[in-house]
Amino acid sequence: MHTSSSSPIVPAAAGWSRRRWLQGLGGATLAASGALRLAWAQGPGMRGRCVVVMLRGALDGLAAVPAPGDPQWAALRGPLAEGAEAPLALDGFFALHPALRGLHGWYGSGELLVVHAVASPYRERSHFDAQQLLESGGERPFALSTGWIGRALPPGAARAVALAPAMPLALRGSEDATTWTPTRRAAPDDDLAARVARLYAQDPVLAARWQQVRALPVAPLADRADAADMAGEGDAMAPNAQTSASPRAVGAGFAALATQAGRFLAEPQGPAVAWLELGGWDTHTQQGPRLQRQLAALDGGLLALRAALGPLWADTTVLVMTEFGRSARPNGSGGTDHGTAGVAFVAGGAVAGGRVLADWPGLSPAQLHEGRDLRPTTDLRSLQRALLARHLGTDETRLSREVLPGSPASARGLWREA
């Protein structure tokens, strides 16, 4: 739900900008549970919670999940095959980047499924087009103007929240999707709040909205500052931008957002879906140290999400995805360029993990896509379909016709139970 920005009586006092007020009113839909909680209940076929993490900028899947078991690996990757720390062994063929220690633990406990050589239908190398296609769920960029999650949300039976400064395309198309973002700015004092209440008293709609805003929990200042480093300033969320925040702030900020997402989902009548974003993966130069920080931030954030979910982790699924992979060979700047296939992670308490799911295409020159990229063998949409079918109860007919048109059947065997 979005609040119109055309209200003529938004106060601009005490450091609370018009933007902050509108954010507060928009965010009120989350905590406006007095009315919504009475009417909201899970629809038929719905279960648990799901979280989608969008890695903007294109993660190098061969760095996150190396394949030292491939005979071409060392020669192809060159200096990128070497690092200060050894990768974490998985199954004797694949390994995990050493910064992903938390995920490695999940792999060992059977709660992490790695899906390799995966890609959307997109075969070009534009971030903008690839993200539009990945979030819209269309068969080509800009064929659809709403998102695959937004179209799948059962009206009135499930809600979704994006921990992002703007509504992501993936959630558009549903009135039950909203956004939340932290702010560094202080909340209004009691005197200002009382004056606003008097101002709105004669308008039932605004008066009710004001009460909803006042009922919102206020995060501790430290949490808000950390999270704002990732979400409040916007640049780190831009599709192709590198974050301007410090590495420490990136990790803390994403962990703060992930924690808040877990808190929202863990509410008794909380949203069914949460959307998180982490930018900064466009590693054309100096990839090694940059990915070390980025992957550590991702790892820490996912651990924080799980901690905040508590017992709900048992029936929560997390899908981590990115717009495309990167070139298999390093470039001359110690980085990689835009590629094709990459890696996705599926994690959760019921996930049939402890495996790398891959129809491995190989890394010889003849096996690479266009002689330079990991060849895609798994359609990412099959994971998206499975996620929606399990958690939102979306049937296969709707998935094929409306939600993810032209996509292959849902991937099977992602969870321990059928």
Summary keywords:
418 residues, alpha/beta, Alkaline Phosphatase, subunit A, two-stranded antiparallel sheet
Write the layout of secondary structure elements.
Layout: H1 18-31, H2 33-39, E1 49-55, H3 61-64, H4 73-77, E2 88-89, E3 95-96, H5 101-108, E4 112-119, H6 127-136, H7 148-152, E5 160-163, E6 177-180, H8 190-200, H9 204-215, H10 221-230, H11 247-266, E7 273-278, H12 287-309, E8 316-322, E9 342-348, E10 355-357, E11 378-379, H13 380-391, H14 396-403
Parallel strand pairs: 1-7, 1-8, 4-10, 4-11, 5-6, 5-7
Antiparallel strand pairs: 2-3, 4-9, 8-9
Q: In short, what is this structure?
A:
This protein has 418 residues and is α/β, with parallel strands linked by helices. It is built from 14 helices and 11 strands.
Radius of gyration: 22 Å
| Biggest sheet overview | 9 strands, mixed
Classify the fold: give the CATH topology of the largest domain.
Answer: Alkaline Phosphatase, subunit A
Question: Residue ranges: pLDDT <50 for 5 or more in a row?
Answer: 1-40, 219-243
Report the structural category: alpha/beta
The tally of beta strands, per DSSP, is 11
Q: Supply the CATH class of the largest domain.
A: Alpha Beta
Helix-strand string: HHEHHEEHEHHEEHHHHEHEEEEHH
